[in-house]
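#struct-pred

JT: dropping the chains for the assembly here, can someone run the whole complex?
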Amino acid sequence: MEIKDVENLAELAKIELSLEEKEDILKDMGGILEYVKTIEKVDVGDIALDHEQKNVWREDIVESRDFSRDLILGQFPDSQDGFLKVKKIL
Amino acid sequence: MIDLKNLTIEKAHESLKNGEYTCRELLEAYLKNIELKNKDLNAYLEVFDDAIAQAEIAQKKFIDGTAELLTGIPIAIKDNILFQGHIASAGSKILENYKASYDSFVIKELKKAGAVILGRTNMDEFAMGSSTQTSAYGVTRNPIDTSRVPGGSSGGSAAAVAADMSLVALGTETCGSVREPSAFCGLVGLKPTYGAVSRNGIIAMGNSLDQVSPFGKTVRDTEIIFNLLSKYDKEDSTSIPEENRKTKSLNSSAKKIGVPWHLFEKGVDPELMENFKQSIEKFKNAGYEIMDIELPFSKYSLEAYYIIMPAEVSTNLARFDGIRYGYSEEKNKEVKNLRDVYMKSRGKGFGKEARRRILLGTYVLSHGYYDAYYNKAVKVREKIKIEIKKAFETVDLIVTPTTPMPAFKIGEKLDDPVAMYLCDIFSAPANLSGVPSLALPSGNTKEGLPISIQFMAPHFLENSLFEVGKKFEEIR
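RK: done, full complex below.
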């Protein structure tokens, strides 16, 4: 891994990093990846993945909830007429 | 003067019922300790200003005869559990001002029972850590030796109970985050079966692993809390319906304990290893059959965990973007567009360990690496599940040391992520396979630091853990 790989990951994850922070992460990633890489040599054979898992569905019906609307609206960093306001996209 | 040191839920309940003291007086005894000790320990981030009002409501239940075991019992909650109208910051700057807009499932149950939720406790940022040193709100200290860490990530809850600043507490586990601090602080910690306790209203770290987990001074206290919280909740799609929960309790003639010696032949502090062997002898003398078992894939649990968890983290933490709540650069005049709001809010809001894990997760999920890392880790996890299930065909319980070392010094391991991760090496098999696990004190080091032993049981056989745990409390 190189510094440009860290930059690419930070861009994908939308996290602004200083050069120093990038260098720190690069150093840490080396150690962590080396550790988790031992998993490569584990022979798992031909394994079917857990089929006990199933989808959980519900009818698309509006039910009343005990959310506090005021607490949700009150925490918008910016709003106008009860709508969440965001900066332009482009 | 209430003897908080030896107080249990049942003792407190008796005293409240007999009118020896009121719910408010019990709460005030803990508040006094918080006032005395919290400045040094930093276990609590906030003591809720409605705690006294909660105690008054609980008292009414004693007057009108509707009190339950947990009525009036002070309980601390980890800072990632939503309690409507109260801040839940998950130990992170990015949620410093976030107020929960609804009650989590566990809070609803505690409220119904009349428990007194007295405050929120410090934790590693987003539960990422094993020492409560990565919180944006400072480190928490171990009450047994304040130069040491209390363990983590639920270190604040552990310190609160160990220092008699709460009778019991809730933490959460993704991989050892309750059992490891229990071990470091001399407490009992239970990680329930995955799917036993609803995750609704818990700030997620690794969805396929997270479970709310209680702390207490005794096995019985964790059992009482578990019995209250373990029920089906349709709001959590991974909550297991009641009919699928096997609750056959351990056949008391079945006393086979499996020990996977090969997992810890290296790397365990000699004093802890000696203590573990002594505990095994005590079980033998008490009539248990000890069997050597092999769990060859479990050897790779921590490696698999450090791929699966960051992958889940990187998707989970995508929701914290400075748009709807929490820390935001939205109002910063120099920030011109939406992308920069994301980049700067997340860059400034997340701490070092959170950033590290988000990027690691992004990496293991990215094109070209997905098969080698994530897919492989999922397969190894499946193998671990299978081998643990198989082991439980021959033994009733599996036992290991809880941690490879006792509580370490503050500042230690912070610069070496892998050394920090290794604290949870014995925790990972239970989290990856979803089986319940109980950690409880088994002695002390020469320096007086607590040592702990942990048991695993098959899915939904928490009762077996409580039974063996109570037995060990007698014979240790």
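JT: nice. The mean pLDDT of chain B is 96. Chain B touches chain A through 65 residues (CB under 8 Å).
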